[in-house]
Amino acid sequence: MSTSTIAFLGLGIMGRPMAVNLAKAGHAVVGWNRSPGRADALVAAGGKEAGSIAEAVREADVVITMVPASPQVEAVAYGPDGILENARPGTLFIDHSSITPQTSVDLAKAAADKGIRVLDAPVSGGEAGAVEGVLSIMVGGARADFDAARPVFDAVGATVVHCGPHGAGQTVKAANQLIVAVNLQALAEAVVFLEKSGVDLGAALEVLGGGLAGSTVLARKKDGILARDFTPGFKLELHHKDMGIVTDAARTVGATLPAGAVAAQLIASAVARGDGALDHSALLRGVELLSGYGREQGRHA
Predict the structure, then answer these.
(1) Name one GO molecular function term (predicted).
(2) 56, 76, 251, 271: least surrounded by Cβ within 10 Å?
(3) Residue 180 and residue 279: Cα distance in Å, rounded?
(4) How far apart are CA 43 and CA 63, in angstroms?
(5) Rounded to an integer, what is the distance from CA 167 to the centroid of its chain?
(6) What's the per-residue H, E or C state across 263-276?
(7) Which helix (H) or strand (E) holds 120?
(8) Quick one: DSSP state of residue 281?
(9) Chain segment 238-250, per-residue pLDDT in tens
(10) This prediction's pTM
(11) Residue 173 catalytic?
C-alpha cells in the first residue's frame, strides 16, 4: 500500500489539509464533504471531489473519515448510502474522528460482517499539525491493518503509534484531550496572573516555554493568546464534546478525574457563554471574566 486510492470523507478544519497532504504524497484522493465547496484545495493538489459517499468509496482501497463526533461517523458509515453498504470487501476504513471508544468497537464489528477492516485512529496536533503533516496518531485495531496503513499515516503524521485493539486509539485520544484541557486552563490562569502582576507577557511566555513549564500547548497557542486571536484551530465546542467522552469513559472504568472535572465544567461554561466556535485557547476569556476584566472593558472585548 505504498500508494492507494483513498476516499476522504470530511473536509473541515482538520480533514482538508490532511486530504491535501495525502494527495501530495502520491495517493489518489477522492474527497467528499456534507457541505459543498470544501474540496478546492484538494482538487488543486491533484485530488478529486465526489458528489456522494457511495461515489467516493466505491473504488477506494482506503476510506478515511474525519468528522466531528459519533453521530456523524454513524451517519456516514451506516445505511444504504453509507460506507459499509458501498465499499468493497477488503477495504481498509480508517476513522480519524474523535468519538467514544464503544462507537469504534461497534463500528469495527459491523464492518467485519461486510469484510471491511477498521482502525480507529484519532489525531492530535490541531490545524497547524494537520497542515504541516506532523499529527500524532493513536491507533486501535489489528496490528496487521496498522502495518498496512503506515504509508497513509506517514503522509499526515509524525508520531504514529499502535495502542491496542479496537477502541484503544479513542481511549488514548480521550486522555490526550484531558491533558490538553487542563494544560490550556493552567496557561489561561498563568496569563491573567502575569498580566495583573504587570509582567511583560511576551517575555514571560518565552522564558516559560524554555523551561519545565514548556509544552506543545504553549508553543502552539502563545501567538494567538498574545494577539487575543481565537481563530479556531480546534473549536471549544469540539473539546466540550471530547470532555464528555473522557468523563463518561472514566466513570465506566472507575477512574477519578478531579482536575479534569473542573476543566470540563469551565469548557462547558465557555460554550454556554457563546464561545463554542472559538479556539479552545479562548478558555482565557473565562479566566479574564472571573478576574474582573468584564466583556465590555476587558482584554478580549
Answers:
(1) 2-hydroxy-3-oxopropionate reductase activity
(2) 251
(3) 13
(4) 18
(5) 16
(6) HHHHHHHHHHHHHC
(7) strand 117-120
(8) G
(9) 999 999 999 999 9
(10) 0.91
(11) yes
Q: Catalytic: which of 24, 109, 173, 235?
A: 173
CA angle at residue 214 from 208 to 215, to 5 degrees? Answer: 145
Length of the chain: 301
Q: pLDDT, tens digit, for every residue of 141-161?
A: 999 999 999 999 999 999 999
Angle at which helix 216-227 crosses helix 201-209, to 10 degrees, equals 170
Beta bridge partners of 225: none
Residue among 92, 73, 68, 90 at smallest CA distance from 7: 92
**3-state DSSP assignment of residue 65:** strand
Are 54 and 76 within 8 A, CB to CB?
no
Instruction: Give the position of cell 485530488.
Output: 47
CB 187 within 8 A of CB 217: yes
Cell numbers 467514544: residue: 100
